[in-house]
Design brief:
This protein has 172 residues and is of the alpha+beta class. The protein is built from 3 helices and 10 strands; from the N terminus they run βββαβαββαββββ. Strand 5 and strand 6 form a beta hairpin.
């Protein structure tokens, strides 16, 4: 019996994408997230998430001012004392879970889910706006709902706010 192994990759979506033009400074650093599975622990370990301008292993407090600016740019009308919600333990746990589901479903295309985060950092609702695979979207929505978040901040106080989660899924 022959077994085929498919490698799933999650590309970070429009949330943190950047296209450089000829008159811009050099393209900013992009981050990748490598698989932890020892099956793939070789010098050629596969990258399960790529092309992020935001590091996967940092909390919001650990991000640089420029990285925070990129996260904040996804929200309109944020005041100086406002902050968006952000995964409490950084992006890595979310993207590892998404890549796990992607490896099982092998769906390709854009996935866009908006998660409502309350003032305590709990996810209360997830709405799927775009998906290449309904089962994968349900799985990812469940992951997003169980994950802890740093709540949004409005005028210096914790508040409810939406968290956009967008990825481009592909298999290699």
């Amino acid at each position: 019996m022959r077994t085929t192994t498919a490698i799933a990759t999650v590309l970070v979506g429009s949330l943190f994408c950047h296209l450089a033009t000829a008159d811009e400074t050099p393209a900013p650093k992009k981050y990748s997230l490598k698989a932890l599975d020892s099956t793939f622990a070789t010098p050629y370990s596969w990258k399960m998430a790529t092309n992020s301008l935001i590091p996967f292993d940092k909390t919001y407090a650990e991000l640089s001012n420029e990285e925070r600016r990129l996260v904040r740019s996804q929200y309109e009308g944020m005041g100086e004392l406002d902050e968006p919600p952000f995964p409490k333990n950084g992006l890595a746990p979310l993207y590892r879970a998404v890549a796990d589901g992607q490896q099982r479903r092998l769906a390709e295309g854009d996935l866009s889910i908006i998660v409502d985060i309350d003032s305590t950092g709990q996810a209360t609702k997830a709405a799927v706006y775009k998906t290449p695979d309904a089962a994968l979207a349900n799985y990812v929505a469940g992951v997003l709902l169980k994950h802890p978040y740093k709540p949004g901040v409005c005028d210096g106080k914790p508040c409810s706010m939406a968290y956009p989660f967008r990825v481009k899924l592909r298999t290699e």
